[in-house]
Amino acid sequence: MTGIIDYGAGNLKSVCNTLDEIGANRKLIKHPDDLDGISSIIFPGVGAFGDCAKHLEKQRLVAPLKQWIEQDLPFLGICIGFQMLFEGSDESPGITGLGVFSGQVVEFPNIESMKVPHMGWNQLELQNANDWAWHGLGKSPYFYFVHSFFPKPIDESIIASTTLYGEQFVSSVRRGRLLATQFHPEKSQFAGSRLIRNFLAEASRS
Prior knowledge:
Number of domains: 1
Structural class: alpha/beta
CATH topology: Rossmann fold
């Protein structure tokens, strides 16, 4: 059973539809008790960093999520679910994230030739094309992005991919059974469906 974090503003419908299409069992997580019987977590995201952090605190999900990740249980973070893994964001000064990884979420620089938000399909530069996350996706897969901010990890060893948009930015990280992406696999057609299948296959090995 896959739990989908519902903090009131996530892109739940698309994620639920993708899981339904691939035949995966799922339920929404709004409270710590909802974690009972869950074998993997997907934290999808659309919305502001600060609003997300406040909702997680109100729902008493901060400590359970950190504990889940510390135990290296299967976790997939998407967009804001990726950004929340870091200490804070320039989008919401003074608001703390989960702090799983050291680093700050920053805004794209103001470059005249670039449109922000970064929106549309873009290519990944994979750090290790043989990683389980990228199985069946080739060496330079394309995924769909919608974002104005991105994390800058202090620990570069967790970087799974980068993407060029004005500058090279970190588009995903992977550590153990944690995978987190700035792009939206649930909006990325075959590539996204394959990535989610890879995540669930890895989760099933636990």
